[in-house]
Structures are given as C-alpha cells and as structure tokens.
Amino acid sequence: MAIIENDVSRIVIGSAIEVHNALGPGLLERVHKECLFYKLAKSGLYVEKEKEIPLVFEEVKLECGYRIDLLVERMLVIEVKSVAVTNEVHLAQTINYMKLGNYKLGLLINFNVARLKDGIKRVVNGL
C-alpha cells in the first residue's frame, strides 16, 4: 500500500507534538528541527534535512540557496519556525518551496507556542 501525504502529515504532527511536549517553547529553531528530524527518522520515515531546491528561471536552473528545512518521504515540505508569531512571509516561504519542488502538501510548524496545535499551519498546493 502506498503511503500518501495525509498519512505522512499525521505522523509528522504527532512527532512534532512529542518534541514540543519534551522541549517546550523558547528554544532555537534549529534545536526543534534537529529533534524533529531525529524523531521522524527514528519512526522509519525517509527524511531529508536542509534539502536544496533550485529555482528555474527562463529555462535556467539557478542554485539560489533555497533549502527546505525537512522533506519527508519526498512529498511533504516541513518549514520549522520558533518565532513569537508566524506571518504571511513565513507562509509564503512554505508555499514557494512547495511550488519550486512541485510538492502538494506542506506544514509550517512554529514551536514557540504554548500549545503546538496553535502553531501548525497545513498548506495545500493545487499544482
């Protein structure tokens, strides 16, 4: 049976909640990203950290330094934040990574909140 984006996102959200419950808010973004990467890899999912993503402009592939925080099972974009409030720029960043890589689903996860469910935004790309 093929694994689909929604199945992967449920596992990711559950793992993110476990990381948040263990660490709480207030730590650096990279700490949460490393712990989530570890937790997801330990669960058996294929996870790429700091996945480079090129920009194609006028048929030229440009390496502009774009990096997806975590790419899970080659299908789910995870953008990790640890900020007081996520804003439209953070959401746009997630959407742009999804468009550039032709991914359908993304999660913007802000770990700097009291309850993690308040820091998760699910993003769907219609392609």
- Structure classification: alpha+beta
- Our measurement of the CA-to-CA distance between the termini, rounded to an integer number of angstroms, reads 24 Å
C-alpha geometry? globular
β content, as a range? 25-35%
Mean pLDDT metric: 93
Write up this protein:
By secondary structure, this protein is an alpha+beta fold. The protein has one domain (5-124). The chain has helices at residues 5-23, 29-42, 88-101, and strands at residues 47-52, 55-57, 60-62, 67-72, 76-81, 105-110, 120-124. The strands form 2 sheets. Strands 1-4-5-6-7 form a 5-stranded mixed sheet, sandwiched between helices. A hairpin with a 3-residue loop joins strand 4 and strand 5 (76-81). Helix 1 (5-23) packs across helix 2 (29-42). The radius of gyration is 14 Å and the shape is globular. The model has no long low-confidence stretch (mean pLDDT 93).
